[in-house]
Design brief:
InterPro entries: 3-5_Exoribonuclease, ERI-1_3'hExo-like, Ribonucl_H, RNaseH-like_sf, RNaseH_sf. Residues 9-175 form the Exonuclease domain. GO terms for molecular function: 3'-5'-RNA exonuclease activity; nucleic acid binding. This protein has 180 residues and is an alpha/beta fold. The protein has a single domain, classed as Nucleotidyltransferase, domain 5. The protein has seven helices and five strands. It has a five-stranded mixed sheet with strand order 3-2-1-4-5, sandwiched between helices. Strand 4, helix 4 and strand 5 (128-130) form a beta-alpha-beta unit.
Length: 180
């Protein structure tokens, strides 16, 4: 399938999480997919969206809500199943034809695990950019930084709420703009 090289999809996922290990019978699942479309010609962020996803093998814990601000009630009211979220990525964002990036490799691996566990087709192509590693290389850092540390290094304020996928994707795309 031909690649479309006019835009990069910047993806950040939030997943169910706990203070310690998962409770028995629960696994970490995607609960938000943050998407920022980065226009390569204009070298700027074009749009953003957050897709809330209903977990099927876990619950949103109080710890998770404190970290992300995502509540079980919000997921119940606005969430879609992962299959529908992947369909949106493929149809609306043409995710299988576009290069996509995330801060580190967690988001890619989490998508692979969650899709495999549910028997859902992986929504992305093979071209993934690890923006975290590229940022460290470009800035001659001895080690990779968290997204908030990279924003601090650039002397930029975080836009939105940290650990909300939609806002983190927006901030990651801004950091990525320094690499292109």
């Amino acid at each position: 399938m031909a690649k479309k090289l006019d835009k990069i999809l910047v993806i950040d996922v939030e997943s169910t999480c706990w203070q310690g290990p998962p409770p028995e019978g629960q696994v970490s699942e995607i609960i938000e997919i943050g998407i920022c479309v980065f226009d390569l010609k204009e070298r700027q962020r074009e749009s953003r969206e957050g897709i809330l996803v209903k977990p099927t093998q876990s619950e949103v814990s109080p710890f998770c809500t404190e970290l992300t601000t995502i509540t079980p009630e919000l997921i119940d009211a606005e969430g879609v199943d992962l299959k529908e979220a992947c369909r949106i990525l493929r149809k609306k964002y043409e995710s299988q034809q576009r290069v996509w990036g995330s801060w580190g490799d967690y988001d890619r691996r989490q998508f692979e695990r969650n899709c495999k566990n549910r028997g859902i087709g992986y929504p992305f192509g093979t071209n993934h950019l690890n923006v975290k590693t590229l940022f460290a290389i470009k800035n001659c850092l001895e080690r990779e930084l968290g997204m908030d540390g990279a924003m601090e290094l650039m002397q930029w304020e975080l836009e939105g709420t940290h650990h909300r996928g939609v806002d983190d994707a927006w901030n990651i795309a801004r950091l990525m703009s320094t690499l292109i």
